[in-house]
Design brief:
Blueprint lengths: L1 H32 L9 H19 L4 H23 L4 H25 L25 H7 L8
Helix pairs in contact: 1-2, 1-3, 1-4, 2-3, 2-4, 3-4
């Protein structure tokens, strides 16, 4: 089971990295061709595709207000796919379909990583560090000191 998990994680990492690089290249080139200075064009794909990863983790982590994380995830994924498709638009239908693959697989690999991390088979109940020991009642040796020096700390009877 461990070997299968490690193999899955290795393949997932390779696919996610390649998908990110392909999407990164297309979005950076699209940004550079559309009024974003070349030295800043790399920032566009980082913002868009890293938001997919962050939003996916937020969806998994948050207990409340998950709608915001879901909305952000949907927006970032849509922007990534649209940007990759727009980059390939002039090359034809096949190029458009191929261009949509990297951002979709980046999204899928991120989700798969979360599923692998949350797999209930992986979790084993933690053993207590120390056995539970019943302690005897201990007299309040500081009670007389508190009554004399700090009467405001003495509990009301």
């Amino acid at each position: 089971m461990l070997l299968a998990r490690l193999t899955s994680l290795a393949i997932l990492t390779v696919v996610a990295t390649l998908a990110f690089v392909l999407s990164f290249t297309a979005l950076a080139d699209l940004a550079a061709r559309n009024a974003v200075p070349r030295h800043q064009a790399w920032m566009v794909p980082v913002v868009v595709d890293a938001t997919i990863v962050a939003a996916t983790l937020a969806v998994v982590t948050l207990r409340h207000r998950r709608w915001y994380a879901w909305s952000l995830l949907g927006l970032a994924a849509t922007l990534s796919v649209a940007g990759n498709v727009a980059h390939a638009w002039s090359a034809g239908v096949v190029a458009v379909v191929v261009a949509a693959v990297p951002p979709l697989f980046l999204l899928a690999m991120t989700e798969l990583a979360v599923l692998l991390a949350r797999d209930p088979q992986r979790r084993t109940p933690a053993a207590p560090l120390l056995p539970h020991v019943e302690l005897p009642d201990v007299p309040d040796l500081a009670g007389s000191w508190r009554a004399k020096n700090a009467p405001h700390l003495v509990p009301a009877a």
